[in-house]
Write a structure and sequence with these properties.
With 47 residues, the chain is mostly helical. It is built from one helix and no strands. The termini are far apart.
Length: 47
């Protein structure tokens, strides 16, 4: 039973790491799209 609990815990840790990384990538993607849209609308990079 202990080995099964350890496998479950390891899987949950893996899911947590994947979730955090996915949120970072998603945030960077939104940031890039917003910068591209702002550049297309003529806004300066300083904004």
């Amino acid at each position: 039973m202990s080995q099964m609990a350890s496998l479950f815990t390891d899987r949950q840790i893996g899911y947590t790491i994947a979730d955090v990384l996915a949120k970072c990538v998603f945030g960077l993607t939104i940031f890039k799209i917003a910068r591209m849209k702002s550049a297309a609308e003529g806004m300066a990079d300083a904004h």
